[in-house]
Q: What sequence folds into this?
C-alpha cells in the first residue's frame, strides 16, 4: 500500500512562485526637487567641482604721508580755519567732520579734538591715599562721544608729514594740542598757529607765520596745573571720606585746590551774617519844594533826634567840583563779567559762555584774557570804520590811540570786536 493510505487527511498547501521586483537603485531613490516635476539625479548634468584659487595677500606698506594735519580744539574752529585757508571740502566719518583743502600746492587736512581727549588717572596699583603716581589716560573711556574724534585723528595722522597745533592759545589749549600730538599722532613736537580771532585775515597770517614748535612754557604750566589739581583733589577727597568713615557713616565728598578755599570764603561769610546783631538807627529827612534832603549821617542815639525838632529853616552849602572821568579801560574777562552783572545781572558763567560763542563765530577776540592792551597791529581805526554801519556813534571817535589799562597778557590782547 502506498504511504498516503496510512496518513490522516489534512489541508493541502499550494506553493505559487511569484516574481520578486529588483531593489531600486540609488539614482532611482534620489530625486532633486525643482520647480515642476521631480527629476532623477542621473538625468541631472554633472556639476563641475569649484576649485578655490588662493589669492596672495598684498604686502601692506606704510601709508603715504602726503599732507599737513591741523588740529583744532573744537569742530567750529576747524570749520573757520579751513574756510579761511582755502576752498575746503567737508568730509565726515562716524559723524565727525573734517576738511581737506589745497594751499600753495600743499594738501591740508583740518580736524578737531573736542576739548580734553585725555585725563589724569591714578597709576596702576595705586590704592588709598596719599597717591603721587599718575598717568594720562584717554578720556573716552568714560565719555564715549570723544572716541570717534580720537580715532579719526589717529587715522588722519598716519597720512600727515607735518602736524600743526591750532588750539586756543592758552595753557589749556596748549595741553590739549600737546596731548593730541604726543599720544595720538606720536609726534614729540609740532608746529603752532597763534591767533586771537577766528577771522580770515588773522588766520591766514597765523598760518603764513607759523611758530616752529609748541609753546613749551604754556604746555608745562598747563600740565603742572592739571597735576596739582589732581593731587589736591584725589588725596584730600579720599582723606575726607576716610575721616567720615571713622564716625560710622559714609558719603561721597570732593574738595580741590580751588573748591576748598572758595568754600571757606562762603562759610566765613555765612557765619558773619548769622552772627550779625542788628542795631536800630534813624534817618533825618527834610522836604522843601517837593525835594527830599537827607541828613548825611544815620542817628544811632535816639536822644540826638531832639535837636532836629522844630527846625523852621536851614542854611545849605553847595560845593561845585569839576571832575574828569577817564574812559574805561578795554575789557579783560574779569571786568567784562563784572560790568555785565552790574548793568544786566548776567552771571559770570553766562557771560563767559556768551563770549565764547561770539569768539567762535568770529565776532570778538579770544575772551579768556587778562590783558587791557590793544596792540597797534589790530588797527582799531579800521575796526571802528567797519562798525559804523551798525553803530553810527563809532564815527564820533576822535582819539588816535585807544585808552589802555595796566594789565597785560603775553598770549592775547584785550577783548575787542572784530568789526
A:
Amino acid at each position: 500500500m502506498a504511504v498516503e493510505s496510512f496518513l490522516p487527511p489534512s489541508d493541502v498547501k499550494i506553493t505559487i512562485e511569484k516574481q520578486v521586483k529588483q531593489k531600486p537603485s540609488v539614482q532611482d531613490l534620489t530625486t532633486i526637487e525643482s520647480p515642476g516635476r521631480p527629476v532623477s539625479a542621473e538625468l541631472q548634468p554633472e556639476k563641475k567641482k569649484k576649485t578655490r584659487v588662493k589669492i596672495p595677500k598684498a604686502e601692506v606698506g606704510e601709508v603715504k604721508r602726503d599732507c599737513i594735519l591741523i588740529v583744532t580744539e573744537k569742530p567750529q574752529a576747524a570749520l573757520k580755519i579751513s574756510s579761511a585757508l582755502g576752498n575746503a571740502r567737508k568730509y565726515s566719518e562716524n559723524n565727525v567732520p573734517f576738511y581737506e583743502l589745497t594751499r600753495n600746492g600743499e594738501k591740508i587736512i583740518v580736524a578737531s579734538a573736542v576739548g580734553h581727549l585725555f585725563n589724569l588717572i591714578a597709576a596702576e596699583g595705586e590704592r588709598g591715599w596719599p597717591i603721587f603716581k599718575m598717568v594720562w589716560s584717554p578720556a573716552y573711556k568714560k565719555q564715549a562721544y570723544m572716541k570717534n574724534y580720537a580715532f579719526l585723528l589717529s587715522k588722519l595722522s598716519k597720512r600727515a608729514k607735518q602736524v600743526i597745533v591750532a588750539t586756543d592759545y592758552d595753557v589749556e589749549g596748549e595741553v590739549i594740542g600737546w596731548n593730541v600730538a604726543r599720544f595720538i599722532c606720536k609726534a614729540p613736537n609740532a608746529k603752532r598757529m597763534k591767533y586771537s580771532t577766528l577771522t580770515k585775515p588773522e588766520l591766514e597770517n597765523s598760518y603764513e607765520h607759523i611758530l616752529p614748535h609748541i609753546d613749551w612754557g604754556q604746555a608745562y604750566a598747563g600740565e603742572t596745573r592739571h597735576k596739582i589739581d589732581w593731587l589736591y583733589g584725589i588725596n584730600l577727597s579720599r582723606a575726607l571720606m576716610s575721616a567720615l568713615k571713622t564716625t560710622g557713616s559714609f558719603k561721597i565728598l570732593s574738595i580741590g585746590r580751588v573748591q576748598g578755599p572758595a568754600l571757606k570764603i562762603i562759610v566765613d561769610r555765612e557765619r558773619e551774617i548769622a552772627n550779625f546783631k542788628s542795631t536800630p538807627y534813624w534817618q533825618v529827612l527834610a522836604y522843601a519844594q517837593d525835594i527830599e534832603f537827607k541828613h548825611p549821617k544815620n542817628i544811632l542815639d535816639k536822644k540826638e533826634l531832639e535837636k532836629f525838632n522844630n527846625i523852621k529853616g536851614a542854611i545849605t552849602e553847595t560845593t561845585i567840583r569839576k571832575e574828569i572821568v577817564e574812559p574805561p579801560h578795554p575789557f579783560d574777562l574779569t571786568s567784562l563779567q563784572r560790568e555785565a552783572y552790574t548793568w544786566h545781572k548776567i552771571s559770570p558763567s553766562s557771560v563767559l559762555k556768551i563770549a565764547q560763542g561770539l569768539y567762535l563765530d568770529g565776532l570778538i577776540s579770544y575772551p579768556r584774557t587778562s590783558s587791557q592792551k590793544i596792540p597797534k597791529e589790530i588797527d582799531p581805526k579800521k575796526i571802528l570804520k567797519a562798525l559804523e554801519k551798525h553803530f553810527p556813534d563809532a564815527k564820533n571817535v576822535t582819539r588816535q590811540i585807544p585808552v589802555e589799562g595796566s594789565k597785560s597778557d603775553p598770549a592775547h590782547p584785550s577783548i575787542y570786536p572784530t568789526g
